[in-house]
Write a structure and sequence with these properties.
The complex is a heterodimer. By secondary structure, chain A is of the alpha+beta class. In chain A, about 20% of the residues lie in helices and about 35% in strands. Chain A has one helix and three strands; from the N terminus they run E-E-H-E. The radius of gyration of chain A is 15 Å and the shape is elongated. Chain B has helices at about 1-20, 30-40, 95, 125-150, 155-185, 190-220, 225-245, 435-440; strands spanning about 55-60, 65-75, 80-90, 105-115, 120-125, 250-270, 280-300, 310-320, 325-335, 340-350, 360-370, 380-390, 390-405, 415-425, 440-450. In chain B, about 25% of the residues are buried. The chains are: A alpha+beta, B alpha+beta. The interface of A and B includes residues 17, 60, 62 and 66 of A.
Chain lengths: ~70, ~450
């Protein structure tokens, strides 16, 4: 993913990604790039005992409308 | 007029701006708001939280109070919550032992301004990719249908079918004529068998004539190009709506203001031991009103120990001080028989203390939930309140509870919320009660049943 922020004069949107483990309570750092979040997921899976963990990437999308510039 | 025009222009520009970025994201529209209410807000709903978001029925064992709440979601995403409650302030146990009850009935309305300019939602990427795949497939299907429409494919296909049937009919007619000739001339072939073959061909011919008439009728009734285009676009939009409503929203951040109005009627008995015996117990009735302004902030996420809700508000009430009086149980016995061997006893509750009504009260309150464990299964609930009333000492109350949410295994909606709670009344004993803090406080169990109305919003 090349860009995570989309904006124009009236609206902006920020997208962040985070690896979240469904099997345990692990969650990675918020990343601007989804690939980095997937790398976090694989790092977590590579730890001993985590081979069969189910990990997904959570995307957070914030939309902000600008009423005045 | 000029101001109105400027506002409309601004809104139009905002919507245009939003439209340009939404292609890479998920809509935050009325359907999504509804989904949040019916599912994720289910954790919060209980009558004590003062927030009427979510549809629920609840029972409070301590006050034997029943609450029902429902919501109307407006097109701008805001929510009007309506709550009705009724109960016996003597408590649930009094139903089995007492003969007369002190009652409370009320209604609340709350408008939640959820059209905030900043909105955050969270969804799993696997869900998003599934959505994008379905959306891509639909777009491709739409493109193909559009090309077919542009080239009047439906008309062409019908014409091809008609020509094909006409040719088949001709072939069959010729075959029937040929067999007829053969029947007249043959000496070696079985005439009965030939006659049966003719009959079979005639049946087929009749069927094809009927099919031809049907196709010719379809061709005559084929809708105009613009009508077909409208129907195609409607089909596309409906399919897209269905795909979008299938996305699971896993989290959100929302901040919003709400205003509310409440009316409540208390009907109760007062006990004054200093009065003459006949007038010691008197019946009273008081109608209280309240208006409230709140700010709420809710962060909900599937990540454990990161979900919380906070709400702060100010409330003006025109009320009485019934909640600060002491409840006492009164027994009245009537004796019968020459030696008073038979007694009939009536039991009821009454309130003791300096009763004051028509009080102008201002209270500042907060409501805080911190969710624990995976899937936000439980929460610590704290709700302090500072109450300032005309003519009486201000008091600080502190309520806290531990909320357990029980979820349906197949859906994420809660089936029941159970909260044991304690309401510590007048922490600093500003009103000089003779009872200890433990005794003048309330303890109870709240059981709330969130329920979903049927909507076109898919369950998570």
């Amino acid at each position: 993913m090349a860009k995570t922020t989309f904006s124009n004069e009236m609206a902006s949107m920020l997208i962040k990604h985070q690896a979240v483990c469904m099997t345990c309570n692990y969650h990675g750092k918020w990343r601007n790039n989804s690939d980095e979040a997937y790398e976090d997921a694989e790092k977590h899976r590579q730890k001993p005992g985590n081979e069969r963990h189910i990990i997904d990437v959570l995307t957070q999308q914030t939309t902000r409308l600008r009423l005045f510039k | 007029m000029k101001q109105k025009f400027t506002l409309i222009l601004l809104l139009a520009l905002c919507l245009k701006g939003y439209g340009q970025v939404q292609d890479t994201s998920i809509h935050f529209d009325q359907k999504l708001v509804k989904r949040l209410i019916y599912k994720e807000f289910a954790n919060l709903i209980n009558p004590e939280s003062n927030n009427i978001i979510g549809n629920f029925a609840s029972i409070d064992a301590k006050d034997a109070e029943l609450n029902f709440a429902g919501n109307i979601v407006f097109k701008n995403g805001s929510i009007l919550g309506i709550k009705a409650n009724g109960g016996i302030t003597d408590g649930l146990l009094s139903i089995f032992s007492n003969t007369e009850f002190n009652t409370k009935f009320g209604a609340d309305v709350q408008y939640n301004f959820l059209f905030h300019k900043k909105k955050t939602i969270e969804y799993f990427r696997s869900e998003y990719l599934k959505y994008k795949k379905q959306e891509g497939k639909l777009k491709q299907e739409y493109k193909i249908k559009k090309i077919e429409l542009e080239h009047e494919n439906a008309k062409n296909e019908l014409n091809i079918e008609i020509v094909k049937i006409q040719s088949e009919i001709k072939k069959k007619e010729k075959a029937i004529t040929d067999i007829g000739k053969l029947i007249d001339t043959t000496t070696t072939l079985n005439k009965d068998s030939l006659a049966l073959q003719t009959k079979k061909l005639q049946i087929d011919l009749e069927k094809q004539n009927s099919e031809l008439a049907f196709n010719q009728d379809q061709l005559a009734k084929i809708p105009s190009k613009s009508q077909q285009e409208t129907e195609l676009n409607n089909w596309y939009n409906l399919k897209l709506d269905t795909i979008e409503s299938n996305i699971k929203i896993s989290g959100f951040k929302l901040g919003w203001f709400s205003i509310g109005y409440g009316i409540s009627n208390n009907s109760f008995k007062l006990f004054d031991p200093s009065s003459p015996f006949d007038s010691q117990v008197s019946k009273h009735n008081f109608l209280s009103h309240s208006v409230e302004l709140k700010y709420n902030y809710y962060i909900y996420t599937p990540v454990a120990y990161k979900t919380f809700f906070i709400s702060v508000g100010a409330k003006y009430s025109f009320e009485d001080n019934l909640s600060s009086l002491t409840k006492v149980e009164i027994s009245e016995a009537e004796s019968y028989g020459p030696n008073n061997e038979r007694k009939i006893t009536d039991k009821y509750n009454a309130y003791k203390g300096a009763y004051k009504d028509s009080l102008h009260t201002v209270s500042f309150n907060a409501d805080f939930y911190y969710f624990l464990f995976k899937d936000n299964k439980a929460a610590i609930h704290i709700y302090p309140e500072e109450k300032i009333a005309t003519g009486i000492e201000p008091i600080t109350n502190l309520g806290f509870g531990f909320l357990f949410t029980f979820k349906n295994k197949t859906e994420s909606g809660n089936i029941v919320n159970i909260e044991p709670y304690a309401n510590l009344f007048d922490l600093a004993n500003n009103r000089h009660s003779e009872e200890s803090l433990v005794k003048r406080s309330d303890y109870g169990l709240r059981v709330t049943f969130p329920f979903n109305f049927k909507t076109n919003v898919k369950s998570k």
